[in-house]
Write a structure and sequence with these properties.
Blueprint (H helix, E strand, L loop, with lengths): L4 H7 L5 E12 L3 E5 L7 E4 L7 H6 L5 E10 L7 E12 L15 H6 L8 H23 L3 E2 L5 E2 L11 E2 L26 E3 L4 H11 L1 E9 L12 E10 L3 H22 L1 H16 L11 H10 L3 E4 H10 L1 H4 L16 H12 L3 E7 L15 E9 L3 E8 L4 H10 L8 H8 L5 E7 H9 L20
Parallel strand pairs: 3-5, 6-10, 12-13
Antiparallel strand pairs: 1-2, 1-4, 2-3, 4-5, 7-9, 8-9, 10-11, 11-16, 13-14, 14-15, 15-16
Helix pairs in contact: 4-6, 4-7, 4-14, 6-8
Catalytic activity: tRNA(Asn) + L-asparagine + ATP = L-asparaginyl-tRNA(Asn) + AMP + diphosphate + H(+)
Organism: Capnocytophaga haemolytica
Subunit structure: Homodimer.
Length: 476
Amino acid sequence: MYISIKKLLKEGKLAQEVTLKGWVRTFRSNRFIALNDGSCLENVQVVVDFEHTDEALLRRITTGAAVEVEGTVVESQGKGQAIEVQAAKLKVLGDSNPEEYPIQPKKHSLEFLRENAHLRVRTNAFGAIMRVRSTLAYAIHKYFQENGFFYVNTPIITGSDAEGAGEMFRVTALDAKNPPLTETGEVDFKKDFFGRETNLTVSGQLEGETFAMALGKIYTFGPTFRAENSNTSRHLAEFWMIEPEVAFLDLAGNMDLAEDFIKYVLKYTLETCRADIEFLNQRFLDEEKTKPQNERSTMNLIEKIEFVIHNNFKRVSYTEAIDILKNCNHNKKKKFQYLIDEWGADLQSEHERYLVEKHFQCPVILFDYPAKIKAFYMRLNEDGKTVRAMDILFPGIGEIVGGSQREERYDVLLQKVHDLGIKEEDLWWYLDLRRFGTAVHSGFGLGFERLVLFTTGMTNIRDVIPYPRTPQNAEF
């Protein structure tokens, strides 16, 4: 058995005999190994008795090499660490050619690290990001499990399009070069594996609703896929979504749930991953120094997280937000790429960030959106032109949560389905929920990577998922 570096440093027991396994970060003066095993941000210093160690073995101790060390924990004589390990036995488990190993102990660009995504997690920054990501995921399950929610696994392959966007990845087993055709010359999906046209899911919401209307409170947490050609720092083709659905919950309760959930998850992660987030905070501050003064954040990373945890989210109607945007100097001076000139406009990221970062200077929940720019399943308000939708907007991110009170009235939902040209037979089971024991219910979706983006202070979504899937890129 070997001890993790995290446990070793936490216990700090002197004179104990330990076995360590990890990867060499640096080896200097033929004597000092900085060893890291991924369990925490910190390295442990291993002191080698080079005078009594075979030279051939010393040459194999290079950056990136995997080693096993047996030795004694002693008080460190050098600066920067309280304890170190005096090596009695040293074994190289896996060599690393220093001429070829790309992750050398120096600063690398994020683009270079994306090209070496299989090794980038060995850097301090990406080790910290992925530990934070793991803790956020655990906190999400912890919150829902402690609050009476049941975890549901919704299908990844589906015949329904929850968003009505049409930007889906098709799943087929047909011969791409010679697919079977119908009499009218169209691809005959009846002869496909599932006997119908199927796609990768864009959301588990519709199936989640069916379980909420039986179990009361459920959540899904799984991969979702969008085939939109958005080559931006905020979009991925494959990402993870958290989607709770709750029976007997209206829009106000939905907003309360989303705010409470986000605050809990951030608080737990900040407390659990303090060292990693402090490291990422310093990285954030260093990045901010490279920006012009007027573009720098007024808060550091930890202050941003604590601000969200300790302050109420501002709740603003879409109509009020449009008035603010239409009359702001930014719009009047045509500094927005997409100018706001009338009610009904679909808000872009620049508008969302203006509301959060410039106008209100806090997280914002927008609600009661125009029906025309929202999905068919959202409950129509009495005015006949807005729906019970809500989006949560975060600084630096824009939209992080999208949710709504679902349309529980059968006749209203059926009319919406017809108006949008959705085939009734494709959603017969979803409509059944409104025929058998319908009730008010609500839910939301939170893009996990955007939450990780906010918590780590990173600026590109490609850097908070192990292997990003983006247009023209499916490497690794």
